Each structure stands twice: as C-alpha cells, then as structure tokens.
C-alpha cells in the first residue's frame, strides 16, 4: 500500500499532479499523504498558456470551479488554432471539433482540396463562430460543459498559484525549500531527499516535477534523454507579455494565432488583461538577438519597454518516465514543442495514469512501471507525429529553415509511410497510430486538408453540410466573447 507521495517542483506539473492525486485518493478513500516541495528561488518556466479541451475534465476532477479557474488564471476561451503563413496561400484552422454531425465523416473522406472551399469551414462551424467572436457557451451552460468544444488560454503562473492555495486547503503538505541532495539506495530506489534547510524527506513514491532540471529522474537516477531534434528543429523561444493598457487589439479572440516565420513560428494568445506572444525558432538559423528583434518588429514600437524572456528547450524525452520509485511528470520527463499546446495535456495524462496505477505499484511494481512507460512513449510518438506533420508538408521553401524543416530527413519515420499513402487517398481511422489519445484522425485531417496535401478521392462528390441554421441559433444564443468575460468578472466581484 502506497501511503506517501513526495512531489518535487511547484510549476504546472507539480500542482496539477498534486491536486489530481489528492482528489483521486480522497475519492477512493485511500489515506495517502501528498507533500510538495518547491524551491522559492528557482522560477517556474512561466509559459504554457494554451490548453486543449481535456483541461476541463481535469479541473472537474480536481474540484476547482470553472468560474474560479477562469478568474484566477485570467482565462479566455480557446476553440481552435489558426495557422497563418504555414503554406503559400490562405490560412487554415485546426478547431477542436471531432466529427460533429452525421455525414461529416463521409465528407472528410471524400474531400477534395480542389473544390474551392475550405475543409475546416465546411466540416466545422467553429471557424465561423470564432470569426464572429462568439463564446462557445452561454453563462447559463453548466460549468465545464459545452455548446461547442473548447479549452482556455490562461496564465500558467497564476494557475499554478491558485492550484497551490486550493491544494493546501485540501491537505497537501507544502514545503518551500530547494532539494540539494538525493539519497539513492544500492538497489536504485530513492531513499530520501534533503533540502537546503537541512530537512530530510522520505516517501513511498517520488514524483519529479522539477522541469528541465530533472533533479530526481535525470540527475539522481541517471535516466538519459532521447532526442527528436532531427524532426522538430526549433529549440528556442523568446516571449513577451503585452498588457492591454499598452496595446489592446480590437477583439479578445477565441483562437491561438500560429504564424509561421522565417526560422520557426510565432504565437499570439489573448488573455483577459494582456496578450502572450512568443517566437519559437531554431538556433541553427536565427540568433537570439535577431529573434527578439523580429518579435518586437512584428508587434510594433509599443513593445519598446516590455521585457522579453528567452527560453532554451530541446525536443527530448527521458528513456523512461518511471524508474524504480520515481516517476517524472512534465518537463522533467520531456518536451516536444509548443505548436499544438500538448505540454499541459502530457501532465494531465501522466497524473491521471499515476492516480490509476498508484496502488497497482504496491503489488505489481515492474508491470506497473512498464505499463506507464509504454503509454507515455505512445503518447509522445502520437504528438511527435502530429507536430512533425505541420512542418514537413508545408510548401514553403523560401528560407534555409523551411528547406531544412521540409527535407526528407526531417520526416519522422512513423509518419513517412502514411504521407506516401495520403498522397493518393484521404486518411482513414485505420491509418492512425495507436489509441489516439490526443490527436485523432480529425486533427490530422484538418492539417492535411488545410495544407492542401491530400489527394482528392476521385469520382466522389461530397455533400456539403449547411451551417446556416446552426449559425443562426449561435448568433441568437451565444454571447460575444468579451460580454461573457465581463459577466464572469461581475459575477466574481459579486461573490467576493
Ligand atoms: C516555449 C514554451 C512554450 C510552451 N507553451 C505551452 C502551451 O502553450 N501549452 C502547453 O500546454 N504547454 C506549453 N509548454 C509546456 C509547459 O510550459 C510545461 O509543460 C508546464 O509549464 C510544466 O512545467 P513544469 O512544471 O514541468 O516545469 P517548471 O515550470 O519549470 O517548474 C519546475 C519547478 O521545479 C522546481 N525546482 C527545480 N529544481 C528544484 C530543486 N532542486 N528543489 C526544489 N524545487 C525545484 C522549481 O522551483 C519549479 O517550481 C510550453 C513550453 C515551452 C518551453
């Protein structure tokens, strides 16, 4: 029986994992003491502003109300990613829709990129709803439930802070100290960790949420990294926060903008009181100074007094996520790249598995570890395949970066054969990798058709769905995004 879990690290990974485990154990009536140790002097990475819809299920499980989440993390709605300049030609969307209405499955199979209409706008109404800046739900829709699929843009630091308060109120023990030493037994198990204040802590299971430092799994247990940098070339980001009192766009939009640039791509995320901007680029093709200059130039002179944050990362994953009595969740285990907002999902998925497998570990440790590691490897491969797709099928060849990113050698082996097949017929469920945890066929279709990669299914004439009625209803019932946010702020003030 596992009675104690010690989590090291208090970023999004640490606090999401701590709260999910705590809620799971309480639901199962299992007396497991959860302790989280974080260094007050080592900052969290401070990015991770775009989420995917699973975050709603995660927060429901934790027990944090939607109003609380949205107010404390300055969240806005996110219904899709808009890809701009990824291909010569028009922009396209990756909405969160999954085959919403009967007939769309057949349509997706029969779709011809040459019939002149955009696939995303034909299959889904979300692009239109986003263009009209409507919220995906009404204030009366029950919390976390949806009229249309949605996630959030949020302030990751504020979310972690709120989850810290929330978790401590519910019994998570919190220690602010830096881990300076890790004691490993001869059999390879972690015995204890010692802080800079001289305190020693032991536990039945240790969770490494120390970010890229990977203090427990990487440093203490010597688990190395496998790299995906041949397929995902970006390894740097420069980010900036632009408050609305410095510059406010016309609308607070419900989509992430992903704009392809000469040596990578740039995000633009709208929160309640500011925008988050970031240029993700390859250091082989652009210097850090030049990247920052380009980010500032793309935004305008009002960024002159706004500080920029430079981040180094690598597309890597630990050889195993769980070894002996230590499991890594979050950046300590790995990271691919932020293009499809998969980082927080990996944490949710790892923490959910851990909640399920915690007691398995007590009686079948080796099988549990293999099970966890296999599932996490599969998820990484699924996400790698999907992100790699965005780059390799681009028809851009205009800069050295784009020539390298679209080279044959940059296509991940797990994707290569599928791309050969999809040149001749549209993708099918049976082509997909494994159980499709995050990116199912629908997501692949939005990218493949958006980039006009897929060959038409000759001889078939798709029946186009008509969105007129549903859009009429949306315009009548759904509030504008900013009206929704306003009502939310007022309700929160009234409750305070
Ligand atoms: C450029 C970029 C953009 C991203 N954008 C997104 C996005 O849009 N959406 C998304 O889902 N994900 C995104 N991610 C991923 C996301 O940021 C991370 O998955 C998430 O923030 C989790 O980070 P973490 O908690 O693992 O690490 P961190 O935030 O780095 O936290 C590490 C914690 O460990 C503590 N620590 C470290 N060493 C010690 C020690 N010795 N003793 C005690 N404590 C210690 C630190 O104090 C800190 O609390 C992005 C990542 C990058 C690099």
Automatic annotation (TrEMBL):
The keyword Oxidoreductase applies. One of its GO terms (molecular function) is oxidoreductase activity. Gene3D superfamilies: FAD/NAD(P)-binding domain (3.50.50.60). Keywords: Oxidoreductase. Signal peptide: none annotated. Pfam families: Trp_halogenase. Its EC number is 1.14.19.-. It comes from the Bacteria. This is Tryptophan halogenase family protein. It comes from Ponticaulis profundi.
């Amino acid at each position: 029986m596992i009675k104690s879990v010690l989590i090291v690290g208090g970023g999004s990974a640490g606090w999401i994992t701590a709260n999910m485990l705590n809620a799971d154990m309480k639901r199962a009536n299992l007396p497991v003491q959860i302790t989280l140790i974080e260094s007050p002097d080592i900052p969290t990475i401070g990015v991770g502003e775009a989420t995917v819809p699973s975050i709603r299920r995660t927060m429901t499980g934790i027990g944090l109300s939607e109003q609380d989440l949205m107010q404390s993390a300055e969240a806005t709605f996110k219904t899709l990613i808009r890809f701009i300049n990824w291909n010569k030609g028009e922009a396209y969307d990756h909405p969160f829709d999954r085959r919403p209405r009967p007939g769309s499955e057949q349509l997706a199979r029969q779709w011809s990129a040459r019939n002149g209409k955009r696939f995303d706008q034909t299959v889904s109404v979300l692009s239109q709803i986003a263009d009209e800046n409507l919220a995906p739900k009404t204030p009366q829709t029950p919390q976390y439930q949806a009229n249309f699929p949605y996630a959030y843009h949020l302030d990751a630091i504020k979310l972690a802070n709120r989850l810290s308060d929330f978790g401590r109120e519910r019994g998570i023990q919190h220690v602010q100290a830096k881990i300076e030493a890790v004691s490993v037994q001869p059999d390879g198990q972690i015995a204890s960790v010692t802080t800079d204040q001289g305190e020693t802590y032991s536990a039945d299971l240790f969770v490494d949420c120390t970010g890229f430092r990977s203090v427990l799994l990487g440093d203490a247990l010597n688990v190395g990294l496998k790299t995906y940098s041949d397929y995902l070339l970006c390894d740097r980001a420069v980010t900036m926060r632009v408050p609305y009192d410095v510059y406010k766009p016309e609308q607070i939009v419900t989509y992430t903008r992903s704009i392809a640039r000469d040596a990578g791509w740039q995000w633009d995320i709208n929160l309640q009181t500011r925008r988050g901007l970031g240029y993700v680029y390859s250091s082989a093709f652009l210097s850090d100074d030049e990247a920052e200059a380009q980010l500032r130039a793309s935004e305008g002179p009002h960024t002159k007094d706004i500080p920029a944050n430079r981040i180094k990362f690598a597309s890597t994953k630990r050889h195993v996520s769980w070894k002996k009595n230590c499991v890594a969740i979050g950046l300590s285990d790995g990271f691919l790249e932020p293009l499809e907002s998969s980082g927080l999902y990996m944490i949710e998925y790892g923490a959910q598995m851990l909640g399920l497998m915690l007691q398995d570990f007590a009686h079948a440790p080796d099988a549990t570890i293999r099970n966890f590691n296999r599932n996490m490897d599969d998820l990484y491969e699924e996400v790698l395949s999907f992100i790699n797709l965005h780059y390799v099928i681009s028809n851009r060849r205009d800069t050295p970066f784009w020539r390298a990113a679209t080279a044959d050698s940059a296509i991940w082996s797990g994707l290569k054969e599928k791309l050969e097949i999809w040149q001749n017929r549209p993708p099918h469920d049976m082509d997909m990798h494994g159980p499709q945890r995050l990116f199912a066929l629908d997501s692949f279709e939005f990218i493949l058709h958006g980039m006009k990669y897929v060959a038409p299914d000759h001889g078939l004439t798709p029946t186009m769905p008509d969105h007129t009625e549903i859009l009429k209803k949306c315009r009548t019932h759904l509030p504008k995004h900013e009206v929704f946010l306003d009502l939310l702020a007022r309700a929160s003030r009234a409750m305070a």
